[in-house]
Structure formats: C-alpha cells, structure tokens
C-alpha cells in the first residue's frame, strides 16, 4: 500500500505531501512503539473491570433466586384445613389422610384430633370451654401444607371441590385473602426485580464493552500494520479473539468465586438463607455469568478490530 501512495517523480520534482505524510506517520509509529510498557494493552484492568460487573450481575441474580425461594417458603406455609364430621372413626380419618398424602398437590398432611384442637385453641389465648361445657365442640381435622405451585385461587377451589367429595368431610377452609394478597405482592416484586435485572444487564453490557475497547485501544497500530502488509481480517482477529475468550474465562471465574464466597459467608451468618437454597438455579446462574463474560468480551474485541481496520491511519492518533 505504501508503494501505491508514492507518486512518480523525476529529479526536478519535489516529493508530494502524501509521500512525506507516510514518513511522518512511520516516525510517529516508531515513537509509539518505543514507549514500551505503555503500548501494552491493559488486560489486567479489563479483567478486573469485567469481573466486578459480572459479580454485580450475579449478586442480583442470586437475590432473584432467593426471592423465588422465599415465595415458595411462604406459599408452602399456607395451611388448608379439612374439617371432619363429628365422631368420625379413626380408621376413616387415616384412610382419608393416606389418600391426601398420595395427591400431587399435598406437601404434608397432619391429623389434628379433637383433644389437640382444644389444646391449640387454649394455647392461642382462647377460653377454657371445658369449665362451661361438658363436651368438646371442636372438630377433628386434617391440616394440609400444599406445594407452592398449587397455592393460588383457581387451584385451591379445585382442591376444595375434590376433598369435599368425601362423606367424612364437613368443610374445607383456607385463608383466601392471605393467598390473594401474597400472590399479588409477589407478582409486583417479580416485575420490579425483572425491570432492575434488565436495566442492570444493559449497563453490564455497556461497561464490559467499554472496558474491552479501552484495552484494545493500545493495539490499534498493530492491527493497522497487519492490515497494511496484507493480513486478512480473520487472521488479524484470531489472536485477539483467543485472548478475549481467555479474559472472559478468567473474569467469569473470578466473579463466580466471589459470588460463592459471598453466599457462603451470608448463609453462615444467617442460617435461615439455607432454606431458600436452590442448587440447580445457582449453578445455572454461574454458568450464565461465565457465558456472558466470554460472549461480550469476544463481541467487543471483534467490534474494536473491525473499527480500527476501517479507520484511516491518520485517524489512529
């Protein structure tokens, strides 16, 4: 390309500016290459920057996962009371409990006898009715804790209809208002966390892209020089892509390790968090952190290479 820029001249002509500009360019490039360490890309800073933003994204993901686990715990604490007819035989109660235990919507079934119901009533601050009455007016019941997926109005109505088919069941009750409010609140929280996650993901992409482009800035003369000597775009991009993959792996590994340390510390400090632990989703989150780090690093590196290949050499300064 340099030869194409040289205009023919004879001994009486003066060199045209385009030829002189090339001497100036190569002189400036020599000065740039002589700066030594300053010319090296700041890969370390890029790795640190990418690791921090991935850690931030992973932390939000962990909060979302815990929010889902918290929703599951609250829903599974909702109790459905199956009130039985008075004087129902114990074998019929156990038979009904066995049937309910085998249903997919039941997480746990507990039989409450008349005597246990009276003790519970008195413990919760009720009056001791045995001093006024000769009989126990309370009924035996089966208390159900449901799987979280069935704690909604439609499912609960169907479950009630199913249980009411038994001739030993007097009534089926559950806290309608609590269920409706809980589902409404969790839905709102989910939308808010989803919006925050989307905004944060966009911010993470922009930050990683700018960090990689800043690291690639010091390679702009090398990229242009390789193009000038006839290297193809694929040949020029290949070593930078490999470096981007390596940087993404290192950054993802550092962020995953940091997230794991933070989770372990918080679960040791607050053991109740272990009840919200969902290993499968946590592993998926960490894999996504690794993939996002690699993918954005490679795409940003490729974009920087293409950008410098399209630029005129005078614009590199």
Descriptive overview:
The protein is α+β, with helices and mostly antiparallel strands. The protein has two domains: 40-71 and 190-316, no CATH class; 79-174, Alpha-Beta Plaits (2-Layer Sandwich), CATH 3.30.70.3040. It is 66% helix and 8% strand. The protein has helices spanning 2-5, 17-33, 43-77, 90-101, 114-123, 153-163, 176-216, 220-228, 233-269, 279-310, and strands at residues 79-84, 106-112, 141-146, 169-173. A four-stranded antiparallel sheet has the order 2-3-1-4. α3 crosses α9 (233-269). The longest helix is centred in the middle third of the chain and has 41 residues, at 176-216.
Secondary structure: elements and pairs:
Elements: H1 2-5, H2 17-33, H3 43-77, E1 79-84, H4 90-101, E2 106-112, H5 114-123, E3 141-146, H6 153-163, E4 169-173, H7 176-216, H8 220-228, H9 233-269, H10 279-310
Antiparallel strand pairs: 1-3, 1-4, 2-3
Rough outline: rod-shaped
- Number of extended strands: 4
Main sheet record: 4 strands, antiparallel
Task: Work out the helix count.
Answer: 10
Task: Detail the poorly predicted runs.
Answer: 1-41
- Report the end-to-end length measured between terminal Cα atoms: 19 Å
Secondary structure: helix percent: 55-70%
Average residue pLDDT? 76
Query: What is the quaternary state of this protein?
Result: single chain
List keywords for this structure.
single chain, 317 residues, alpha+beta, Alpha-Beta Plaits, 2 domains, four-stranded antiparallel sheet, 10 helices, 66% helix, disordered N terminus
Write a brief caption for the model.
With 317 residues, the chain is of the alpha+beta class.
């Amino acid at each position: 390309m340099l030869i194409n820029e040289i205009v023919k001249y004879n001994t009486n002509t003066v060199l045209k500016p385009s030829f002189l500009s090339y001497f100036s360019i190569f002189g400036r490039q020599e000065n740039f290459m002589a700066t030594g360490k300053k010319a090296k890309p700041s890969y370390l800073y890029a790795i640190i920057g990418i690791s921090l933003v991935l850690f931030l994204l992973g932390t939000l993901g962990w909060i979302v996962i815990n929010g889902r686990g918290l929703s599951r715990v609250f829903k599974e604490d909702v109790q459905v009371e199956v009130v039985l007819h008075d004087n129902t035989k114990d074998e019929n109660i156990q038979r009904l409990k066995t049937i309910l235990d085998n249903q997919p919507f039941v997480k746990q079934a507990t039989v409450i006898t008349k005597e246990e119901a009276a003790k519970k009533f008195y413990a919760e601050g009720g009056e001791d009715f045995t001093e006024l009455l000769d009989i126990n007016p309370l009924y035996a019941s089966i208390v159900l804790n449901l799987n979280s997926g069935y704690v909604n109005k439609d499912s609960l109505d169907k479950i009630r209809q199913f249980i009411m088919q038994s001739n030993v069941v007097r009534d089926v009750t559950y806290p309608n208002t609590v269920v409706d409010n809980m589902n409404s609140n969790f839905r709102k929280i989910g939308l808010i966390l989803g919006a925050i996650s989307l905004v944060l993901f966009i911010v993470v992409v922009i930050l990683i892209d700018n960090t990689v482009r800043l690291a690639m800035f010091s390679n702009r003369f090398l990229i242009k020089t390789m193009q000038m000597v006839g290297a193809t775009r694929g040949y020029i991009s290949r070593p930078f892509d490999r470096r981007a993959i390596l940087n993404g792996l290192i950054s993802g590994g550092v962020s995953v390790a940091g997230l794991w340390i933070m989770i372990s510390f918080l679960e040791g400090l607050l053991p109740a968090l272990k009840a919200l632990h969902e290993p499968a989703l946590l592993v998926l989150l960490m894999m996504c952190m690794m993939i996002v780090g690699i993918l954005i690093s490679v795409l940003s590196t490729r974009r920087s290479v293409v950008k410098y290949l399209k630029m005129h050499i005078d614009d590199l300064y």
